[in-house]
Amino acid sequence: MSYLKHLKSAVIASAIAVGFALPAAADEQYFPLQSYRVGPYAAGGTGFFGGFIDYLNLINIRDGGVNGVKLTWSEGETQYEVEKGVEVYERLKNNPGVAAWNPLSVGIAYAMIDRITQDKVPLITVNHGRTDSTDGRVFPYVFPLLLNPYSETSGIVNYIAGKLGGQDKLKGKKIVVLYHGSPYGKETIPIYKLLADKYGFEVQQIEVPHPGNEQQSQWLEIRRAKPDYVVLRGWGVMNPVALKTAQKVGYPVDHIVGNVWSNSEEDVIPAGDAAKGYVAITTQASGEQYPVVQEIVKTVYGAGKGNLEDKKRIGSVYHNLGIVNGILNVEAIRIAQGKFGHRTLTGDEVRWGFEHLQLDAKRVEELGAKGLFHSINVTWKNHEGDGYVTFQQWDGAKWNVVSDWIAPDWALLRPIIEKSAAAYAAEKGIKPRTSEEAPVTTN
Amino acid sequence: MPGASALRQRPDAVLTPRDATAALKAAIGTGVRAQDPSASTAATPVLAIEHVSLAFGGVTALADINLDVWPGEIHAVIGPNGAGKSSLLNVVTGLYQPDRGRVRHGGRPFAHVPTARLARLGVARTFQNLSLFKGLTVLDNIVMGLSAEVRSSFLGQIFGVPAAAREERRHRAAAGEIVEFLHLTEVADRTAGGLPYGIQKRVELGRALVAKPKLLLLDEPMAGMTLTEKRELTGFIRTARDTYGTSIVLIEHDIGVVMGLSDRVAVLDYGRKIADGTPDEVQADQAVIDAYLGVAHDVDVGGGI
Amino acid sequence: MFDYQFFLEVLIGGLLSGIMYSLVALGFVLIYKTSGVLNFAQGSMLLFAALTFVSLVERGVPFWGAFAATLGVMVLLGVAVERTILRPLVNQPPITLFMATLGLSYVIEGVAQLLWGTQVHGLDLGIEDSPFEVYGVLISQFDLFAAAVAGSLVAAFSLFFRYTRIGLAFRAVADDQYAALAVGLRLPRVWAIVWTAAGVVALVAGLLWGARLGVQFSLSLVVLKALPVLVLGGFDSIAGAIVGGLLIGAIEKLSEVYIGPYFGGGIEGWAAYVVALGFLLIRPAGLFGQKLVERA
Amino acid sequence: MATPVRNTLLVTPERLGVLLLLIVAYGVIPVIGTGYLFDAILTPFLALSLAAVGLNILTGYAGQVSLGSAAFLAVGAFAAFNFNLRVPGLPFVVSIVLAGLTAAAIGIVFGLPSLRLRGFYLAVSTLAAQFFVQWALTKFSWFSNDNPSGVIDAPPLTLAGFAFTGPIGRYLFSLTIVVVITFAVTRLIRSQTGRNFVAVRDHETAARVIGVPVLGTKLVAFGISSFIIGVAGVLWAFAYLRTVETGGFNIDRSFQILFIIIIGGLASLRGAFLGAAFIVVFPLILSRTGAALFGGVFDSGVLEMSQRIGIGALIILFLILEPRGLSALVDRVWDWVRPRRAAALGGATPRSFFIRKLQPKGRT
Q: What is the distance in angstroms between the Cα of A406 and the nearest Cα belonging to chain D?
C-alpha cells in the first residue's frame, strides 16, 4: 500500500466530503474495504483482508490487473461495529469504479442490504450473511458465496453421517449443538431440528451467553447428556473456552465439530492441547502448498508488498478465505468484462458477473486453487453457488484436511430459503425477478 | 409548664436591632400573640417529644427525652457536641426512628415520623451542614419549599396546562415575597451553590419559611457566620415567628444568640435532658453550668461547617 | 428423581468459577476502598498484564523472568496512573474518575495491542487440566490450582494490610480520606501503591483467566463477571469479594442448569445481576456492609 | 415580585442563538450538505444527541447514574418495529410514541433499584437492564418477527402523512423529532418536576423533608429518560442504520452515551449536543488525518490503535482540564467575550455522587 495511494484516497474522500465528485479514473476497479484490524475480532480481520489484498496485489503485479484494468482499494476501519461500517460505506461509496463490498461481518452486511440495493452494487458475504439472500430473485445484489448457514448445517450433519458410516446410521444418535447467544448463533436452530426429524437423530441445542468466557454449566449438561457429537457454533472467545471446558469435563475433543466461524487458528491456539483432534468445517483448505498461495508468497511478499505482518500466518484459515474471496471477486469481474468490455465496470455490471460466476474444478485448477476450494456455480436464482465443504482437524500446530469435499443437501434447504425470501419480499414490497433478465445499468 | 407564661411577658431581647420591615411585621405579630397568653397554654403543643430514646450500636444518643414546644414559641436546644441535638431533630423529622417513645406533631402521635409527610404536617427544617439544592437558583430553591403543595403532574407542567401554570405563578410569587423579606433580591437569579456561606444559610431559612410552617426546626443556623450575619439572621428568625406565628426549635452553639432569642431553652448532655426553662432559669442552673457552660466558649469554633 | 451427584458437580464447578470472579473483583475492591472509584480499566489492565507476560514468554524469556518483568511493568503503570490521572483529578466527583478510568482502558488496550499485536495467544501455565473424579464428581485440577492461588493472594493482601505501615495507611484512607489527609498521610503514595497492588492482582488474574480463555482482547470482558460480585459483596470489602464471588459463581451455574431451561437457556448473563439486586433489596447493606451505610 | 428580569425577556442571546441554529439546520444544511454528511454524520449525531438528552435527565439532572442506556435504545427500536408491523394502519408517529412509552415502562422497572441503591451500586445494577434486554430480544424471536437472523429492517419514515426518504429526508425527520423533544425537555427542566430532579440529586434528605416525592421523582426521571432514549433508539435504528440487531446495543453504546454527557457537561442540554458532536465527529477527524498523514508509514491497524490511545488520552485530558464539560467551556469562552455575564454563572456543580470526594463527614 503506497503512501500516494493513501494520499489519493484521502484526497478523494475529502473532496467528496465537501461535495465534489471526481470523474471516474480510467480503467480502475475499486474495492472499498470495511476492514477490522483493531478490537475483539482483529485477528480474523487482519487475516481475511490481508488475504484479499494479497490476491488483488497478485493480480496487479503479475497480470497488470484484470485484462488491463487495475484493481484499487482503500480501507476503512470498522472494529466490527455496525455503525462504523455504515460510516465507512457512506464515505467510500462515491469513489469511482466500486466493484463490490466485502464486509465479512453479518451486522454490517445487514445494514448495507438496503443501501447497496439502492446503489446497485453487489454485496459479497462469503461464508456468512443472510441465508435467504441465496434467493437471487429477491436479493439481486447480495451474494452469500460458497456457503450459507443452512448449507453449513447440512454439511456438518452429512460429515457426521459419514463418520458414522452413512446417513441411515444417524438414527437414534444424539447431537448437541452449542451455539453462541446471538442472532447468528440461533439462526440454524430450525435447520438442525429439520435434519434431526429427517434422519431420526436426537438434537439438543444449548445456548452460551455472549461472550462465552464461562461454559461450565453448559458442558456439565453436555456431559450429562452424553451426546455422540457436539457441534460448536461458536464465535470469538467462546471457541477456545468450549474446547478447554470440554477437556475439563472429559468430553472427547475429536467428537466436537466446529462450524465455519469456529474453524480458524485463532479459535484453537488459545485452547492449547485441549484443541488437539478438534475437527471443523471449512470451504477453503488451509496451508500454503497451493500454487496460488505460493505465487502470492513469491510475487507479492517477494516484492515486499505482502499485507500480513506475521508471515507465519500465510496460508492460515482466514488468510486463505481472503484469497478465495479475492479469486471470486476477480473472476466475477473477469466474467463481466467478457460481456461488457475490458473497462471499469459499474456495480450492476459486476453483479452480472457474479451471477455468472461459474468456476468448475478445471477452472479452479487453472487459477492455482485446486484443493484450496472446490468449485462454485452461481446463477441469477442461486447466489450461494453450491459450494462444497471439507473438514479439517487440528493437530496442535496446523489444520489437516480429513475428509473429501462434501456436498450439502441444497435441494432440501432451497424451499425453506425461498419461503423466507418470499416473506422478506412481502414485508419490503419487493417484486421477485422472474428471469435472469434484470435490467443492468451500464455506463 | 412554669416557664411558659412567664416567658411571654419577657420583653424582646435587646441583643439585636431590627430593621424597619421586621419591626413592622413584628409589631403585628406580637400584637396578636401577646393578647391572650392563656389561650396558648390551653392549646396542644405544636411538638411534643415523649420519652424518646435512641441508641447507635450500644452508644446512647438520646435517653428518655421529653420536650414540648408551644405555638409561637422559640425553643432552643443546646448542649455540647455529641449531646444528641441533631439526633433529636432527626427523630422529630423521621430521619431516625427512635428505639422508644413517640413524637407528636400537632397532637398526632408517631412512633416513626413519616418524613415524606412532614411538610404537610406543617413542619420545616434546616440542616447543620448546608443542604441547599446547589444546582438551582436562589428563587428556585425557595420555590422548592412549597413542594408539598404541588398538585400538577409533569405532563401538565410540560404542556403548560392552565392549572399547572397558575400553580407555578402562585408559588413563584410566594417565593418572591420570601426573597424580598430575606433581602435576597440581588441574588434571586443566581445558582445557590456559588453563593457565600452566610447567604446560603439565609436561602435555606427562606426555603423552610416559604411554606409558612407551624413548626420550624433550625439546626445551627448561625454556625460559621460573622457577627453581623448572626444579628441579621436573628432578626429574620424572630420576625418570622412574629409574622407567621411559627414555633421554632433552635439548635445553636452561640449562647449569646440563644439566650437573647429564645423563649425557652432545653439543655442536653450525653443524650439526657438536664434542664428546660427560661434562659434565666437555665443560666442559673447548677447542673447546666457544670455540664455545659464551662466549656461553652470553645464549642462555637467551627461548629457546623 | 433429583440427581444429587450432578447437582454437586454443578455446585462445585460454580464455586470454582466463582473464585475466578473473586480474583477480578479483588482488583476493583482495592482501588474502590482507597479512591472511591470503580476502576473500569481493571479489565484492560488484566489484558495488558497477560499480553505482556505471554509475549515475553513467546520471545523466549523464562517464566519467572517474564513474571518479574510484567510485575515491573504493572508497577510502572500504577505509578503512571497515579501521576497522570489520579493526582490531577483529585477532588473530582467519583463519576468523573470513573469516566477517566474508561478513558484509561482505551489507552491501555491500544498500547497493549500496539506493542504486542492483535494475535491471540495460548497460555500454558503448566497445570494439567484433566479432571479427576471424587465419588463420581468431576473436579478440575486447574480450577483447584486457581482457587489456591486466589486464596493465597487474598491471604497475602490481608496480612499485608494488617501488619505493615503501608497497610495501615491504606486502611486509614479507606476509612476516611479526609481524616487521613488531615493527619498527614500522603494520599498520592497510598494511591500509587494501591494501583500497583491492583496491577499485581490484574497480572495474577490475567494469567489464570488467560490460561482458560487464551490471551486475547476478550480477556478484558471478564470484568463484567466481576461486577455482580461487587454489588453483592460490596465494593469495599475484600471478604465480600471472595464470598460474593463464590455465591455468584454457584448461583449462576445452578440457575443456568436448573432455571435456564424454562427460559430457553443462556440466562447466565443477567441472572447474577438479578440475584445480586434481589439480595440488596432485602438487605441493602450487602453481605458485609455496616448498618446505616448508604450504598453511595 | 422577585422574578428575575432575564426570564421575562423575549429575546435573549441564547434564544437568538438557538433560533439561528434552527434556521441553519432547516434552511441551510439541507441545501449544501452531501449524502455522507447526512447519513454518516448528522443523523447519528442527532440520534446520539437525543439519547444523551435522555440520559442527562436521569444522570445529569436527577443524579441517577445509568449504564444501561443502550438497552432502552434497543427497546425503543424493537418496540417501534413491532407496533408498526403488528398494528396495521398505525401512523408511524404513534408507533414512535408507543415505543417511547414501552421504553419508559421498562425503564421504570429497572429504575426500581434506585429506590434503595446509589452511586456505583445503582450504576452497576442498571447493567442488569443492559444484559436482560439484550438477552430477551435475542431469545424471543417474536420481537424480530421470527426473522431467522434476528435482524429487522426499517419501515419507511412518515410524519403526518409525509414520507421522509433519502438522506435529507431522514435527516429532517430526525431533526424534527429531536427539536420537538428537546423543546419539551427545556420546559420540563424549568418546571417543578425539573426542580425536583435537581433537588433529589443535590440533597435527597432535604428534598424529602420539604415534601418532594423522592421515590416518585426518581421513577419519573427513569421513565422520562427511558422514553427519550427509546425514541432515540427509533432514530438510531430506522433513520440511521436502517436495520436493527441487538448486538449493536451493547454496553459500549451505553458507555458512549455516558461519555457524551460527561464530556458535554452534566445537567446541560447544550452539553448533550456538544458532547455528541465531539464523540461522533472527533474520531472521524482523527482517523482521517491519521490516515492522510501516516497512511504510508504505518498500516491501518497501527493507526487505529494509535487513535484509540489518542481518544482515551484526550478523554482523560479533557476531564482534567474541564471536568464540567464542553458546555462549561463554551460558557467560559462566552464570559471571555461578554465579561459582564461572568457573575451570573456560579458553580452549578451537582452534589453527592457528582461532587468532590473530600468532604467532612457530618452527623446529620
A: 25
Local structure of B152: helix, strand or coil? coil
Residue C212's pLDDT band (cuts 50, 70, 90): confident
Q: Which chain C residues are closer than 8 Å to A270 by Cβ?
A: 120-123, 213-216
Average pLDDT over residues B72-87: 88
Q: What is the mean pLDDT of residues B74-78?
A: 93
State whether B194 and D347 contact (CB < 8 Å).
Answer: yes
Chain B closest CA to D187's CA: distance in Å?
A: 5
- C188 upstream amide cis, omega within 30 of 0: no
Residue C97: the pLDDT is 87
Task: State the CB neighbour count (10 A cutoff) for residue A239.
Answer: 31
B139 touches chain D (CB under 8 A): yes
Radius of gyration, CA atoms only, chain A: 21
CB-CB under 8 Å, D199 with B136: yes
Is C11's Cβ below 8 Å from some Cβ in A? no
* C52 vs C61: CA distance, rounded Å: 11
Q: Is the pLDDT of residue C195 over 90?
A: no
- In chain C, which residues have their Cβ closer than 8 Å to the Cβ of D325? none
Burial grade of D295 (CB within 10 A; 0-12, 13-18, 19 or more): buried
> A277: how many CB neighbours lie within 10 A of its CB?
16
**So where are chain B's domains?**
1-122+215-221+249-305
- Residues in chain A with pLDDT < 50? 1-5, 7, 10-12, 14-25
Q: Looking at this protein, which amino acid is placed at residue D176?
A: T
Mean pLDDT of chain B: 81
Instruction: Read off the pLDDT of residues B97-135 as tens digits, 9 standing for 90 and up.
Output: 999 999 999 889 999 999 999 999 999 999 988 889 999
Residues of B in contact with D196 (CB under 8 A): 144, 147
The beta-carbon neighbor of D148 closest among A19, A107, A420 is A420
Residue B240 to residue B209: CA distance in whole angstroms: 8
Identify the residue among A214, A245, A314, A318 best suited for mutation to test binding to C, counting C beta carbons within 10 A and taking the highest: A214
3-state secondary structure of A94: coil
Q: Which amino acid is at D49?
A: S
Instruction: Provide the whole-model pTM.
Output: 0.88
The pLDDT of residue B223 is 83
Q: Smallest Cα–Cα separation from C104: which of C77, C71, C76? A: C77
For the segment(s) B1-122+215-221+249-305, the CATH number from 3.60.20.10, 3.40.50.880, 3.40.50.300, 3.20.20.150 is 3.40.50.300
CB-CB under 8 Å, C13 with A220: yes
C46: closest CA of chain A, how far (Å): 15
Mean pLDDT to the nearest integer, D218-222: 96
| Residue of chain C whose alpha carbon sits nearest to that of D129 | C270
Strand runs (DSSP E) across chain C, as ranges?
Answer: 131-134, 137-140
Alpha carbon of D97: minimum distance to chain B alpha carbons (Å): 14
Burial readout B257-296 (b: 16 or more C-beta within 10 A, e: otherwise): bbbbbbbbbbbbbebbbbbbbbbebbeebeebeebbbeeb
Q: Say whether the B–A interface has 3 or more Cβ pairs within 8 Å.
A: no
CA neighbor of A296 nearest in space, from A235, A368, A345: A368
pLDDT above 70 covers what percent of chain C? 92
What are the Cα distances from residue A149, in Å, to A134, A156, A357, B277, C85?
10, 11, 20, 89, 48
Taking CA D54 as the corner, what is the angle to CA D53 and CA D58, rounded to the nearest 5 degrees? 110
Portion 334-353 of D in contact with B at CB < 8 A:
343-351
Residue C216 phi/psi, 5-degree rounding, is: -160, 175
Q: Which residues 90-109 of C have a C-beta within 8 angstroms of D?
A: 90-96, 98-100, 102-109
